[in-house]
Write a structure and sequence with these properties.
Chain lengths: 320, 514
């Protein structure tokens, strides 16, 4: 056991306790958390900062809004319903396309208007929000994902998670849905996490259920060496989340749309630490360097430059 | 960052030190027992004086146990009859006297003094004022022959001894040397004892000898606390201080405990104006909870217990606090299990609340009941999901259902010997309902296995919390030493700054440990 502790220390692996005390609590002011806890506000802020997000079709706040629901959801390409304050992908409904008297869910099942209203009512009554406060339901554009990841995704939308410290992107991971995760990209449900090189945007090693894997479990396609398109834009979006939210330690979730390019999906003030397994290295060393180098006065371009240098240094360190 | 860490660590350590400090003072210095059920023998000590008045001014001076000695001395009472009572203290000898006076007593009169005590042991320290070094004195200044004999004998003892301790041993040994009838003592001792071979005379001689060598010594008079009796003899012994040690010499075998009444070689009672005086010293023992003995004692020992304790509260409130003070223990354990081990539970403090609920049902029954109710509730919850009820009404239906199931269990088990039916009443239904709701969300959003894992985790933590919170030692410690709450608080502050890996994370990141 002590051997394991030592090895993990050497690899700079941080645990939840360290993440919370050193980074989340130290860098994320409570008053800034509202910018990421409520996705309505996140969307608004993103617009102000010219960061693209999926189009908002409508917000359901109460029973009156519910009457307008049919108008909000009249989109032939489907839509997504999500709680404004949900976390870990809880309570999200993804509609693929309208059917006669209902819709088809991304999972292939069918849902009718009554069932959808029930789900939305559950969202409104706070079933998925932190602490159970009343919530809002967002109806928004369903992302049509870029084919570059088509061979390594199963029923669902892959997204890219970037960990950003003081505006410097330090770690990135591609999250892929699997059959086990029911089309969702969350790692704790069985999604696949693939480490992404910050400097180049190239995919590296991968993991599922905390174990290392080489190929996608459903499509059997190798996961390594895929280049992420729009990587510069993605890094820029991630870096600018700092100005946007004022949060010093944040997980930025970006999705690649076939037509619209990278879209900011959501921000997370408590990003998970499994990303370390996907990248086969601990967060500590790069976080500590970024803590020293990070400065509010740096421009986003300067911060990305720092991020690339840090990533490059890390590669050299590992190679030697 | 660094200063915050330092502040937290300092705060935590201060809290722990403060709590432990008070705890140690109470348990070690003041003798509060740290395990439940410890008992102490209490002695009811009584001086009973009966006499015949002679119709002339009567005066009785009786030595009373002085309360400034370091010994537990809970309470005392006087029975004066028509007599006037005044208490006289003699600071230099530390004696205390009751002086009973009456102008014209006639016929039989009775005076009584009663006290409760736990007595002293060989380990009871002597007061510092006594142990300060005495000037060397040579006794028998007025009697030249005795003085000469003493100088010869003391000088001889000094030659034959190596240090103060051996000097004392020799002096005591020779002062108490018994000779068969006709056999002569050494000349000097014969002269010094002058035919008086009583214990008190010999103790007096030993005391003089010790004083001549600058060793503080005094004769103590009192009783041995060995058995309950109506008439107890007073005993005499020597207390002295050699090489920084407090020692006592008992000419007769001491029982484990004794009780000092007065010092010096005066008699217990000095009476005038009366006749047919009968003095009885009575002793009666009874056992009592040691904690009550300490707390009810006078002085700092009792006061500290009353400040940091609940025993002055009304009984019902005391019972509430008995439970309340154990909750922080459960909470601290929960914090440890979460921060260091990495247990996953449904809700933050819910496992502790379940643990408290187990108090009513006991562990096994509680576990069975909990599992049963949650399983049935989950079943209902999944059915209600299909009816598409709104959240709050759905929760209400689950609450009502749980009450019904509990009522059913109670009725079904009435008449059987199962206590489960009766203890069920206070099982927290709202906590159960929230558990069911949380579990069903995890069930849907993650997986059945995750929900069951978290449910089991909660139950495991609840069971550990329950076992610790109901442990009689823990209950007793927390209730009698509430200052330990500071220790728990300090521990939680320290754990709040723990940045290391959790045990579960060692497993989670096992791939990176190579």
């Amino acid at each position: 056991m002590f051997g394991a502790i030592k090895a993990l220390r050497r690899n700079g692996v941080i645990g939840i306790n360290e993440r919370n005390i050193r980074y989340v609590n130290a860098l994320n002011a409570r008053r800034s958390l509202v910018t990421v806890d409520d996705k309505c506000i996140t969307k608004q802020l993103a617009q102000d900062f010219d960061i693209p997000t999926p189009d908002l079709y409508g917000v359901v706040r109460d029973a009156r809004d519910m009457k307008k629901l049919p108008e909000m959801i009249a989109h032939p390409d489907g839509f997504v319903v999500k709680p404004a304050q949900g976390s870990q992908g809880k309570g999200i409904i993804v509609i693929d396309s309208p059917l006669k008297h209902g819709w088809r869910l991304s999972s292939g099942r069918r849902i009718d208007l009554g069932a959808m209203q029930f789900q939305i009512n559950n969202i409104l009554s706070g079933m998925y929000s932190l602490g159970g406060q009343p919530d809002k339901a967002l109806i928004e554009y369903r992302v049509k994902f870029d084919d570059v990841f088509g061979k390594i995704s199963f029923k669902g939308v892959p997204d890219i998670r970037v960990i950003v410290l003081k505006g410097i992107p330090v770690f990135a991971m591609l999250r892929l849905p699997t059959a086990a995760s029911d089309g969702k990209a969350n790692l704790h449900r069985g999604g696949v996490g693939v480490g992404v090189d910050i400097a180049t945007g190239e995919t590296r090693q991968a993991m599922q259920y905390d174990a290392l894997i080489e190929v996608h479990p459903d499509t059997a396609h190798p996961l390594e060496g895929i280049h992420t398109p729009y990587w510069d834009e993605i890094l820029m979006m991630a870096a600018r989340s700092y100005e946007m939210t004022g949060l010093g330690y944040v997980g930025v979730d970006i999705v690649l749309d076939r037509d619209k390019g990278p879209l900011l999906l959501e921000l997370n003030a408590r990003p998970g630490i499994s990303i370390q397994i996907a990248n086969r290295r601990g967060l500590r060393f790069v976080l500590e360097k970024a803590m020293v180098l990070g400065d509010e006065k740096h421009s986003a371009e300067k911060r990305i430059e720092i991020a690339r240098t840090l990533a490059f240094d890390q590669e050299i360190e590992i190679a030697s | 960052m660094k200063t915050k860490l330092r502040q937290a660590v300092i705060l935590g350590l201060i809290l722990i030190a403060a709590g432990l400090g008070i705890f140690l003072v109470k348990s070690v210095r003041l003798g509060y027992p740290v395990v439940p059920g410890a008992t102490a023998t209490i002695w009811d000590f009584e001086i009973y004086l009966e006499f015949e008045g002679r119709d002339e001014p009567a005066r009785l001076e009786v030595y009373l146990p002085a309360s400034d000695v370091q010994r537990s001395f809970p309470q005392e009472q006087f029975y004066n009859g028509p007599f006037g009572l005044s208490l006289v203290a003699e600071p230099e000898t530390q004696n205390r006297q009751a002086v009973w006076t009456y102008r014209f007593p006639s016929n039989r009169k009775v005076l009584r003094y009663m006290a409760q005590t736990v007595g002293e042991t060989m380990a009871t320290p002597l007061p510092p004022s006594f142990t300060q070094t005495e000037p060397e004195t040579i006794p028998f200044q007025s009697d030249l022959i005795k003085r000469q004999a003493f100088i010869v004998w003391a000088g001889d003892l000094r030659r034959r001894s190596a240090d103060d301790q051996s000097f004392v041993n020799l002096a005591l040994q020779e002062s108490f040397e018994n000779r068969a009838a006709g056999e002569e003592y050494a000349d000097e001792i014969a002269v010094l004892l002058d035919g008086r071979t009583s214990t008190r005379a010999r103790l007096e001689l030993a005391r003089h000898t010790l004083h001549s060598a600058g060793i503080p010594a005094r004769i103590a008079n009192g009783v041995y606390l060995s058995d309950s009796r109506r008439r107890v003899e007073t005993k005499h012994w020597l207390e002295y201080h050699v090489d920084g040690e407090d020692l006592r010499y008992f000419p007769e075998d001491p029982s484990g405990r004794f009780f000092t009444i007065w010092y010096g070689n005066a008699g217990l009672v000095d009476a005038s104006g009366i006749e047919e005086l009968d003095i009885q010293i009575g002793l009666q023992s009874h056992r009592d909870a040691a904690i009550d003995v300490v707390r009810s004692s006078q002085g700092s020992a009792g006061a500290l217990g009353r400040i940091f304790g609940f025993n002055d509260l009304p009984l019902t409130t005391q019972l509430v606090y008995k439970v309340l003070v154990t909750i922080p223990v459960g909470i601290t354990i929960l914090v440890f299990l979460r921060q260091f081990i990495g247990f996953k539970t449904l809700g933050t403090f819910m496992p502790v609340l379940i643990g408290i609920a187990f108090r009513e049902t006991a562990l096994i029954n509680g576990l069975i009941l909990f599992t049963l109710l949650v399983a049935l509730g989950l079943g209902l919850r999944f059915y209600l999901e299909r009816l598409q009820l709104l959240l709050v009404p759905r929760l209400a239906v689950v609450v009502i259902f749980i009450v019904m199931v509990m009522a059913g269990v109670t009725v079904a088990l009435t008449g059987t010997d199962q206590a489960i039916g009766l203890s069920i009443s206070l099982f927290p239904i709202v906590i159960l309902t929230m558990t069911i709701e949380r579990m069903s969300i995890v069930w849907e959003e993650s997986s059945a296995s995750e929900a069951i894992k978290q449910g089991m985790g909660s139950l495991a933590v609840a069971s550990i919390a329950y076992l610790v919170m109901t442990n009689s030692h823990i209950e007793y410690l927390m209730y009698q030493f509430p200052e330990l709450l500071l220790v728990l608080m300090g521990l939680c502050v320290l754990m709040g700054r723990y940045t290391g890996l959790r045990l579960s994370e060692l497993w989670r990141f096992r791939q990176l440990a190579q």
